User: Fold these one by one.
Assistant:
Number 1:
Amino acid sequence: MGHSMGIGIQYYEKQRIFKLDTPHTSYIMAVVDDENFLGHVYYGGRLEDYDVSYLLRTQEKPSAPSGNNRERCSFMDAFPMEYPGHGLGDYRDGCISVRSKGGHSAVNLTVTSHKIYDGKKKLEGLPATFGTEKECSTLEIECEDATLGLKATLMYTAFHDVDAITRSIKVTNMSGEEIYLTKALSACLDMDNKEFEHISLHGSWARERHIQRQPVGYGKYAVSSLRGEPGHQEHPFLALATKGAGQDAGEVYAMNFVYSGNFFTQVEMSQYDSVRMSMGIQPEDFCWKLEPQESFQAPEAVLVYSAEGLGGMTRSFHDLYRKHLLRSPYKDKKRPILLNNWEATYFDFDTDKLIGIARQASKLGIEMLVMDDGWFGKRNSDNCGLGDWQVNEEKLKGGLKYLVDEVNKLGMKFGIWFEPEMVSPDSDLYRAHPDWAIQIPGRTAAMAREQYVLDISRKEVRDYVYECVAKVLRSANVEYVKWDMNRPLSDLGSSGLAADRQGELYHRYVLGLYEMQERLITDFPDLLLENCSGGGARFDPGMLYYSPQIWCSDDTDAIERLAIQEGTALVYPLSTMGAHVSDCPNHAIGRTTPFETRGYVALAGTFGYELDVTKIPQEEQKMIPEQIAMYHKYNDLVREGDYYRLASYQENKVYDCYEVVSKDRKEALVTYVQVLNSSNRRSRHICLKGLKADAVYRVEGMEGSYLGDTLMKAGIPMENFWGDFRGKLVHITAL
Ligand code: GLA
């Protein structure tokens, strides 16, 4: 039995054990048997001992497969595999499978060598977390399937400052023949079941990322996408929480995929009550041809273990993404408070109208005007014009530069909307290049929002569209881009790919998207990029590598947003959530909420407006400068602080409450919104979290001062509001 010290990654040669340590977690693997299987030994709270390989149960029957081929299948089907293969006796779903020249699908990977180094390499062509040599260590385990001539490099990075481990895999064809990769997941955890409950983020258009929780039972439960993007419906996140785990206590194992296309997550509980939790590219409709010596790099999965419930998990994800994923120059800065004209005007605008809105907005303290859909081609409704990225000078008299200059003269920045991945059948682009749309010869391709998806797996298509976007950006002082994507993929067929490579299209599409966005932020390094997909259908860590914020949802109703933002903030930092105050009755659902409440809810995100300031009532206009003052006062705290969920109206059906605490724990902000209003209720006491027990705090609206300990145990009073959907912010400061 040995003990490990410090943080980082160790290999214990005698016992053939790998141990990865983050500040509070350990991850242990062992190489076993003469055949060098890689077993998953342990993931959980930090251990000082490293040799806990008794957990592999290799002493129980049937033990080593090389000495007992009679029961090899039993071994394969029970052993906790670190990266399970396929088709050789492990009847649980594996991580990798192929179609070989001989037509076979089986894969079995065993360890040949490894290396450990400080820091982390980039994943070529893919977004990924990053860290310096001081901030993380990386382990690469080389495995092979000698029969196939297939090499797989399992990559692990352990962060030194956050409790997160990332995983990925690179597969190389070392044989002399082509091999088709039909499945290549990125991460897998084989563990004993601990009465786990499965947590996922489910939704729909305008109802994204609602938290769903259910017990794990025998069999398989998969959450995945075939839409070519994660989609509104499912999300590349998966957590297993021990029964009853809450915000503060209980164990949580979570995975999040740094990828923006078809994903697959699954939990499978076996006959032995072991659980296999896996994540990667959706294997359905995936088939990647590897010529000899060619490699395939799978995207990265992030693993977080928390012994402090969902709250601990959330804060690890937030810290990891803020420090090791977001790259934008804006990531640690206040974002300009924008006004987007979508809900203000839809397609019905011209230069004068926009300048009129900007003039009034600038007086109220709004800092940027964003011109949304409808400024190009003949786009006066959503049924034409996508692809024709030339300014419509009938609407924008004097051109784009004139408008931008006028807006700049008002002291405001200017931003613009694009949907570069799309083409309308009624567009000059489609008439010139019908084969640039993704479609299958001989079939009438399905439209959605009356548009097709451009085949950006093709370089000429990417280059053309990119140049259109860049030309507009070069023509005027545009400081922000909203990059939208308003339909999922279907009719998968590319005129640029050979028959035996059509199964690569989904992934090549995503690689094309990443290449275009990388180019954009490289060529325009000061640009603020906000991603969007019909609201929040592509809100994932992959996109956050390119844009520090993503439009959360097309539902801007403050109450609906509580659930959407609760689910989003379960994983993603508040600084990444695009959130705006819009007009009422709300355009998505028709509800009327107080203007103040709309402001409180939007302050939890990037903050901005999506309304015509010249048309809303005077009283609401007057509130805008107050809201803006709150944004300036609190945004550093909201962007950089630790997030604590205090109550969820999804659970209690009455009110929502969350808190952000500064890293030095000297300041906190509580947001409270009362959703249900019923008679004869009293005020309630809300217990705060994350404060210093022995520090003395002043609470806005309360007489006197109190110890953090008191505020966390006894709570602060919150009135029962009279009137619908009211709420408030409470600022807490240390003396
Ligand atoms: C999507 C976006 C909206 C808006 C429209 C424009 O629905 O989510 O915010 O930009 O497209 O067509």
Number 2:
Amino acid sequence: MPTDPTRRDFMKTTGASLMMAAAPATQLAPPEKQRPGLNIPKPPNKPVGWAIVGLGQLALAEVMPAFRETKLSKPVALVSGHPDKANQVAAFYGIDPKQIYSYENFDSIKDNPEIQAVYIILPNSMHAEYTIRAHKAGKHVLCEKPMAANVQECEQMIAAAKEAQRKLMVAYRLRYEPYNKAAIEMCRSKLCGDVVQIEASNMQNTRPPNIRLSKSLAGGPLGDIGVYCINACRYLSGEEPVEVTAQIYQPATEARFAEVPRDVLWTMSFPSGVHAHCGVTFGSSSSRHYRVHCVDGYIDMERPFGYRGQELRTYQQRKETTHEFETVNHFAAQMDHFSECILKDTDPLTPGEEGLRDHKVMAAIEESARSGRRAKVSS
Ligand code: NAD
């Protein structure tokens, strides 16, 4: 998902001023030497230490800045193949440069008790390997979506977490923000009556160079942006799809779609008779939306999958209502949820099994598109 212009500007500013911004922090007078009465608050004590694996677009533009808004989570280590970049990021966020790891010495995080949680923000094809290695190192793992490259990898990741007796969570950040949570509650409470159909779309224009246009690294629009629609239809209906139909379009005339489709369109049938129709593309301008059609009205979300900017409306009895909630930083909220699970030894809301379910639906969508027939979702 591309970052919005504000964040891009932030990235540019951040990149340009990483070293400058880090310097003044080291020049602050220690509390005992501060002017009496100044009363500078102590830095908050955030109990759970995180290692960030992969310093790409999402990590730098969203995840690292989100630590400013966490209450329980702090960045203590970085894993990167680019030492210069990692050193700059470490200086900017006050991370000890000794806590920078490469992909080669990644396994030695097992000797670092400061790291409790590991956040995998790598290309999708690397999620399984680094999640399993982190579990073997005795760490809890938050893995970016889509969870892996296929169903089999998801199963291996879940097994690795079980064997290590560590927690595994998939970064479905929308389950931790108020707007999508409210839409789920509206569906469950039947605010507009029983759900009949759901439409969900997630569109963007993906231009090279981008890992998303590589079949081996990311696998195309279904896993990258389609997973949001699948996950949303599951959390809004509260059911698991049993059957799908699908179509994939890969224009031979556009070089950027040499390896991955441009469009994926599909339907999902749920046991109660609810149906969903979804569409994603890497070829149009950004547009994200879902609408839940109910017996007595509808629930409508504009930008449901964005980092911010959700707009939730309902329509019932010929009246449209706009619902407003406090906005939160999605990444801070999901990291703090996972930190809390670690501290209290509870299960995350979106564990590995949640990612596995989406991958089973994606496997059925791919099968249906290949065969031109309805495909069953494996249970
Ligand atoms: P990116 O290409 O900007 O970053 C990938 C990072 O992996 C880079 O730092 C790159 O150097 C590193 N890397 C290590 N080995 C690599 C290799 N062999 N080939 C390519 N890169 C390699 O990608 P991104 O947009 O930051 O996405 C990273 C992950 O985050 C993906 O799984 C993506 O689906 C996910 N993501 C999630 C959200 C969300 O809202 N939850 C948004 C964007 C991306």
